[in-house]
Amino acid sequence: MKNLTSTFLSLAIILTITGCASDPKASFISDKGAYNKGETIHLKNTSSDAYSYIWTMPDGSTLTSQNADYMIDTNQSFGNRTFTLQVFSKNGKKSNSVSNSIPVEIVAIIKDSAIEWGTAINTKSPINDLYIYSFSNGNNWILEFYNFDYISELWEVTADVILPDSHPPTSSGYYSLQSDSSNLSNNSASVFMHSGNPDMGFIGQNCKSLSGTLAIYVNNGHIQAVYNNIDAKQDSSSTIIKMSGNFGCKQ
Question: Domain range for residue 73?
Answer without folding.
Answer: 22-104
